[in-house]
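Example S7 (C-alpha cells).
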C-alpha cells in the first residue's frame, strides 16, 4: 500500500472482451475532502480502505481485507446511504490492466475506466473505448456519488 496513482476516464462504449464482472458494494464511514474511510464488499471479500486527499493524480491509500460478514454489518450500521453499487470488470490494454466500473442504482448510466500507474509521468496509451479524462473532476469520485448521484446531474 502507500501511494495510489490513478487516472480515470469516461467509457464511451463497453469493450466486448471483458472478463466476468464482479459485484461491488461500498460505503463510507468517513467522507471528507481530505480523507475517507471506505468499507467495500467485492465478490465474497470485505475490505477496509483509508484514503487521503487526492493531489493531482496521487493520494495515500491503505487497504486491508476483513471478513465479509463484518464488512456487510459495517455497511449497514456505519455507512452513509445510499451505498455505491457497481459491477467491476478488468481488461488488459497495451500492457496495462484497466478496471471498468459500470455503476448501478442511482448512478446507473455512469461507466468509468481506471488505470493505476507507478508514477505520475508514466506513459500509457488510452484505449479506443475510453473518452474524456475525468481524473481531476471530483464529481466522479465514488465518495461524491453518494451525496450527488449521477442520475441527479
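Recovered sequence:
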Amino acid at each position: 500500500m502507500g501511494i495510489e496513482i490513478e487516472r480515470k476516464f469516461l467509457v464511451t462504449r463497453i469493450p466486448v472482451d471483458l472478463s466476468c464482472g464482479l459485484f461491488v458494494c461500498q460505503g463510507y464511514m468517513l467522507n471528507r475532502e481530505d480523507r475517507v474511510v471506505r468499507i467495500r464488499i467485492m465478490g465474497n471479500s470485505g475490505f477496509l480502505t483509508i484514503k487521503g486527499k487526492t493531489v493531482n493524480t496521487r493520494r495515500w491509500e491503505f487497504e486491508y481485507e476483513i471478513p465479509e460478514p463484518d464488512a456487510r454489518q459495517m455497511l449497514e450500521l456505519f455507512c452513509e446511504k445510499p451505498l455505491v453499487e457497481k459491477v467491476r470488470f478488468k481488461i488488459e490494454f497495451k500492457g496495462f490492466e484497466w478496471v471498468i466500473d459500470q455503476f448501478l442504482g442511482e448512478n446507473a448510466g455512469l461507466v468509468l475506466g481506471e488505470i493505476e500507474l507507478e508514477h505520475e509521468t508514466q506513459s500509457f496509451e488510452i484505449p479506443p473505448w475510453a473518452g474524456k479524462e475525468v481524473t481531476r473532476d471530483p464529481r466522479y469520485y465514488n465518495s461524491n456519488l453518494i451525496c450527488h448521484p449521477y442520475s441527479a446531474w
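Notes on this example. Residues 2-152 form a domain with the Hypothetical Protein Pfu-838710-001 fold (CATH 2.40.320.10).
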